[in-house]
């Protein structure tokens, strides 16, 4: 099938690009065909974000979003920031002590899944074709090396690689330009960065793992619009960094979560268990106790910022949003930046489509990004990850405050962090094991019951999408050297070491996978490669 533009991923970046393309097409009186493929069962099924949304990009894209009923129903009414000093105590920081970018005046607490569902409606009304349940599995190239489009994955192939009665062949989608908007650690984006050397002379990308739950709490505890952030305990006990959040959304719901930076060093650390522990802190417990947990999910996020941002344009295509790494970790937000990157890509592509010659082979998208407010925003926060990784939670936060509040992100130097997250793990015999308490099934839970709330499902009889470069490495290398950390860093209980009479065996429970991509990032041997399962598979987040 032929289109002017094919977009991989119906998240905020991909849908914003689609809408902008059609808006420009309409304004120019040009007929443009745009197709969006989404691996989730529906738009929003795989979208997980905190989320406090800065509406700047949305205001530019759809100025009358309020009149159109965009689901931005909860304006932020207050900001609270805690430094958790122990499992029992916390210091509430005064407003002046909070880094300026994390203030949330004018922002909204939202479900980004629902925002994306609404954006999809706007896109379809403009003539965009959206196909949920189709996973982009392969990049197609022209003979001259330019991207030609994508091929969707086959469906109805058994675990034995044989075609079943339900077999559906892959489909090729060709385009003048292909936009890759897969989210953090995109399967195809990762390949394209390597293929074209887009990350040459860049810092390695850095990541965090975000784990989130939605709770229904009693009305007397609910403070609609309140935003709570915090750093310190429990991650600080292992010298790890990250932060927690608690957002009072609408309908007496709160969004609670923890982001663990994936540069942690102790292989016994479990981000999932750290999150469960954080919920037992009195400041969190007092909100959640007596409430009901109604949803769970997890997703990696790219937090390297400008220093890790690859070249975003290449012959025949572009990377946008978290596929490129446009999240601004300095203000803990990536949705408005993702949307803006999609809009800039659309403007560049439409300009090229109108031009003659090889304009599509030399898109000016990267230049547009650098010259936009998005580029300026990323430049101002370029030192955030470096400060936090090199100086630790407390000193790093102090340096961020100085950088943002006194210098507005204009310090006359750039701090680089050139050590990949997976290389930060210490060997197991050099650290103390971490022993986590059993869940109480009231405030804290295990991973399997949590995955149940994510509505995750995969066709059982299909090839495993969690592939190993070398099947011997988990037991032969990772187990003796690092106590096989996949057992702990996965927030869905996908990986297990099973003891058998003949010795330990590495087991992959692929049906549990919530597509967070942590394994593809944190495996110390870089042995796990995440590839796309059948379309429709994975989580089905209703309100994340």
Task: Write up this protein.
The structure is a single chain. By secondary structure, the protein is an alpha+beta fold. Among the domains are: 2-65 and 113-201 and 305-380, FAD/NAD(P)-binding domain (3-Layer(bba) Sandwich); 384-419, no CATH class. The chain has 14 helices and 24 strands. It has helices spanning 12-27, 56-61, 112-125, 187-196, 271-278, 282-288, 335-354, 365-371, 373-380, 384-406, 447-453, 473-482, 486-489, 518-522; strands at 2-8, 34-38, 52-53, 74-75, 78-84, 90-92, 108-109, 129-132, 136-141, 147-152, 155-157, 163-168, 172-180, 207-216, 226-232, 242-248, 253-261, 292-302, 313-314, 317-319, 466-468, 495-500, 503-508, 528-530. The strands form six sheets. Strands 1, 2, 8, 9, 10, 13, 19 and 20 form an eight-stranded mixed beta sheet that branches. It has a seven-stranded mixed beta sheet with strand order 6-5-15-16-17-14-18. The protein is globular, with a radius of gyration of 22 Å. It starts with a strand and ends in a 14-residue tail after the last strand. The model has no long low-confidence stretch (mean pLDDT 96).
Supply the key terms.
seven-stranded mixed beta sheet; 544 residues; eight-stranded mixed beta sheet; FAD/NAD(P)-binding domain; alpha+beta
Percentage beta strand:
15-25%
**Total number of beta strands:** 24
Alpha-carbon Rg, integer? 22 Å
The named CATH superfamily of the domain at 2-65 and 113-201 and 305-380: FAD/NAD(P)-binding domain
Structural class by helix and strand composition: alpha+beta
**CATH C-level class of the domain at 2-65 and 113-201 and 305-380:** Alpha Beta
Mean pLDDT: 96
- Biggest sheet overview: 8 strands, mixed
Helix content bin: 25-40%
Enter the CATH topology name of the domain at 2-65 and 113-201 and 305-380: FAD/NAD(P)-binding domain
Q: Which spans of ≥5 residues are poorly predicted at pLDDT below 50?
A: none
CATH architecture of the domain at 2-65 and 113-201 and 305-380: 3-Layer(bba) Sandwich
